[in-house]
Amino acid sequence: MAYKIDYCIKKALQFEEADSNVIFTHINKVKVGELDRCRKFYWN
């Protein structure tokens, strides 16, 4: 699935709030039409 970064972060925070066992390590940024990530954002 592809989402804008702000929506991705919003949804990740909702998952963390709903279940304290959920752990996110990073978010990958992928350019439209590409299969490989171009940037990796780490989650603290």
UniProtKB/TrEMBL annotation:
Top-level division of the source organism's lineage: Bacteria
Name this protein carries in UniProt: Uncharacterized protein
Originating organism: Cloacibacterium normanense
